[in-house]
């Protein structure tokens, strides 16, 4: 089965969400094949369905002064940060067509990054054996995962910390877990990573794990480019 991989480049959360919703409608209507959006966002905090207000440690007014957006969205999970140096992926797929249930879909996304980190960086990343989603190196999360599913079609997805400035996670309780931390590929390897190469690597491993054949395209910067 094919999947269209669309590289959005660096883009605001607002515009990427519009694109994601448009493609989600079209996949629901069987007007578009499975799609993976890959993007690097400008600074934003997103609050999932289970977010508690206490997990945002600064006021919305302060965030606005700092030029950081704040969005309440429909995915699962609590609050997290997106920004430069982080690869965010939005797989928009029909779970029936790719033969996945919700749990196995999330586990497969975790496998993408466990394999990528093991094969290319000799990093021993793992799933949490308890109740927490995502990919962990020790007790620090390197990839966050939160999804929303409507009529078997997925939205939202994953956020992989590559060269992410981790100070912004100090402004929140990431994913509502005050006993866990976050990390990045830059921290673990001790050097800045090439984002273009990592985008390609993420797409490759995603397609391998899900057994999908990719076709690639780039988007300029407008919603109208998605036809």
Automatic annotation (TrEMBL):
Compartment(s): Cytoplasm
Active site: 175 (acyl-thioester intermediate)
Known catalytic reactions: octanoyl-[ACP] + L-lysyl-[protein] = N(6)-octanoyl-L-lysyl-[protein] + holo-[ACP] + H(+)
Annotated ranges, domain BPL/LPL catalytic: 30-214
GO cellular component: cytoplasm
Top EC class of this enzyme: transferase
CDD domains (UniProt xref): LipB
Family annotation (Gene3D superfamilies): Bira Bifunctional Protein, Domain 2
PROSITE patterns referenced in this protein's UniProt entry, alphabetically: BPL_LPL_CATALYTIC, LIPB
Binding site for substrate: 75-82, 144-146, 157-159
GO biological process entries: protein lipoylation
Primary role: Catalyzes the transfer of endogenously produced octanoic acid from octanoyl-acyl-carrier-protein onto the lipoyl domains of lipoate-dependent enzymes. Lipoyl-ACP can also act as a substrate although octanoyl-ACP is likely to be the physiological substrate.
Designated name of the protein: Octanoyltransferase
Organism: Dethiosulfatibacter aminovorans DSM 17477
């Amino acid at each position: 089965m094919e999947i269209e991989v669309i590289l959005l480049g660096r883009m605001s959360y607002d515009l990427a969400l519009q694109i994601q919703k448009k493609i989600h409608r079209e996949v629901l209507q069987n007007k578009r094949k499975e799609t993976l959006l890959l993007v690097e966002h400008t600074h934003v905090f997103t609050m999932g369905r289970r977010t508690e207000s206490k997990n945002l440690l600064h006021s919305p007014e302060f965030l606005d002064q700092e030029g950081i957006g704040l969005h309440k969205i429909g995915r699962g999970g609590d609050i997290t940060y997106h920004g430069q140096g982080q690869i965010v992926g939005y797989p928009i797929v029909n779970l029936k067509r790719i033969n996945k249930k919700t749990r196995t879909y999330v586990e497969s996304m975790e496998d993408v990054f466990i394999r990528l980190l093991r094969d290319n960086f000799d990093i021993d990343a793992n799933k949490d054996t308890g109740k927490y989603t995502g990919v962990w190196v020790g007790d620090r999360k390197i990839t966050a995962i939160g999804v929303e599913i409507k009529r078997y079609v997925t939205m939202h997805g994953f956020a992989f910390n590559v060269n992410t400035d981790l100070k912004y996670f100090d402004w929140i309780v990431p994913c509502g877990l005050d006993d866990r931390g976050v990390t990045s590929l830059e921290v673990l390897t001790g050097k800045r990573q090439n984002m273009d190469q990592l985008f390609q690597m993420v797409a490759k491993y995603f397609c391998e794990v899900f057994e999908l054949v990719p076709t690639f395209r780039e988007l300029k910067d407008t919603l109208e480019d998605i036809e």
